[in-house]
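Researcher: I'd like a structural prediction for the single chain below. Treat it as a standalone chain; there are no partners to consider.
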Amino acid sequence: PWVSFGISPFGVWKNKDTDPKGSDTRAGQTTFEDLYADPLVWMREGWIDYLVPQLYWSMNYELAAHKTLVDWWANQKSNSKIYIGYGPYKIFNNADNAWDQPNELGDQIAYGNQKEVIEGQVFFSAKSLMQNSLASVVASLKQNAFKEVVIAPLVGAAKKADSIQWKADVHTDAQGTLRVSSIASEWSKYIPYFFNTELNIYEAGAIRATHIPFLGAKNIEFIKGINSYGQLSAPIPVTRMK
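Model: Treating it as a single chain, here is the predicted structure.
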C-alpha cells in the first residue's frame, strides 16, 4: 500500500488550434488525439497517485515551449500529485541549441519550483546525469536546485492516516528516549538532526543523510523515525550512554 502508481504521458494533451482548452503549442502529436489517452481525466478523478508529463523541450522552444507547458499543466484540475518530467538526455546532444547552455536544465527546475502544485522532478533518464560530460551541470544542480536534503512526501494510504502506528515493543525508557545500544525498532529510515546553534527541528538545513554509525557525532540532538509511507515519528532526544 505504500507503493505509488503513476504514469508519464507525452507532454502535450492537445494543441490549442484543435481545442481551445489545449496548450499554446504546435506539437506533431498529442496524448489525446494520437495516443488515445486522456491524462486530464486520470488526474481529475484521482485514479493515479502521480502524473509526470514529459516536458522534454527547452524553455522557449518554438513549437512546444517548456515554460508554456509547465504553466498549462499547473493550471489543470488535479487530485493526483504532479511532477515534471525533464529531459537531461538532450543536454549537449540536441539540434535545439538551447540545450548547449549548461544552465538550461537548472532554469527549467527553478521555473517549475515556482508552481505550488508542482511537487517534484523526474529525469529521463537519470543515467544521463551520470555521464562525465555533464559533471558541471550536476555540480550546479547540487549547489542550487538540490542543495539541501529533504524528506520525501507522503505516499499511498499515508495521505489519509493521522499518525504512525508504532509497534508495542519499541525499546524506549519511561521518558520516550531512544537508548542507542542497538537499533531494535523496525522503522524504515532514520533522520538525525544536527544543531550547532539553537535547536529547531523544523530547520531543513539541520537534516543530514547518514547511516546509523552517525551516533558517534556529538551534536546530534534528535532522531526521527520514518515508516514505509513516509510518515515521521515525533522527535526523540538522543541520550548518550556513559
